[in-house]
Amino acid sequence: MAEHDKWDIKKLIILRTLRERGTVTATAQALLLTPSAVSQQLTNLAKQLGVPLLEAQGRRVRLTGAAHLVLRHAEAVFEQLERADAELAAYTNGEVGEVRVGAFSTAVPALVVPVVRALRVARPGVRVQVREAEAGEAYELLGAGEVDLALSLAARAVPDAGDGRFTRVPLLADPLDVALPVDHVLAGAAEVRLADLAGESWIFGGSGAWSDITRGACEAAGFAPRQGHSAAGWTAILAMVGAGMGVALVPRMALAVAGRGDGVVTRALDADRPRRHVVAAVRRGGEGAPAVASVLDALRAEARALTARRPG
């Protein structure tokens, strides 16, 4: 027998119940056992521990000093097991755990930070570790196991199935406005359509999700955008627009975070209704992990609130 195998939790519970109930019969009734089963289990425990646990007292038995010593140590074990049960139940309910979230730059302040704040109140045992990353990196980080949940972008409301390793959850449709230099001929127009800007110099990233979204929106309006400058950060893009270097599509989420900057006006494109779609992704089957499910639920709630606050 291994050194710790002699500490049998079930038998220790019987010994503790005998101390509380006083008789073998009462102990058997409390634990739904027979009196002979209680006596046999305690006899076996005494053999395992190598000390007498009971002594006769008339027609009854009483615990020995060794039994009280054993129970004093066992109480610490019982207490720790209670804590373990409580923590395990909390984990199962999604109330504790760590979730590593990878998110593109504008999603961090607009979605992830509010979710972290909400979870501090609703589920303080859930710890969210945030990693800022380009939207195009989301699936690489997820596949490499470096994050548990990633926020990415898609051109359509229902993204392609793509890599079968991942489950994708659409969160929100973010309207795209057009950013124009303040002295642009269309800056004060009553209505602006993408087709009106077919001859403009466009500013957008050279590759990745945002490039695909910009090209897709323009192509849906009947033209291929001529890329005058390449930039990924909204501060850089809007600074170039303000300097009269070109025009750009800008998500409202980004405008809410970065602001328009000097020399820039933004116009809604309601006739074209271009959108970029924010998608949460997890490794297939990972959405069932309780803590991950808690973060996903909080992201959905924040996405609904964000959509309600913005004109669409």
Mean of residue pLDDT values: 87
Shape: rod-shaped
Poorly predicted tracts of residues:
none
Oligomeric state, counting identical vs distinct chains? single chain
Number of strands: 11
Spell the H/E element sequence: HHHEEHEHEHEEEHEHEHEEH
Helix content: 40-55%
Radius of gyration, CA atoms, in whole angstroms? 32 Å
Q: Count the DSSP helices.
A: 10
Q: Report the sheet-strand fraction.
A: 15-25%
Terminal CA distance: 70 Å
Largest sheet: 7 strands, mixed
Structural class: alpha/beta
Short description:
With 312 residues, the chain is α/β, with parallel strands linked by helices. It contains 10 helices and 11 strands.
How would you portray this structure in words?
- This protein is α/β, with parallel strands linked by helices.
- The protein has 10 helices and 11 strands.
- The chain has helices spanning 9-21, 24-31, 35-49, 65-92, 107-122, 138-143, 209-220, 234-242, 252-258, 290-309, and strands at 54-57, 60-63, 96-103, 125-132, 149-154, 166-181, 201-203, 226-229, 248-251, 264-267, 275-283.
- Helix 1 (9-21) crosses helix 2, helix 1 packs across helix 4 and helix 2 packs across helix 3 (35-49).
- The termini are far apart.
- The model has no long low-confidence stretch (mean pLDDT 87).
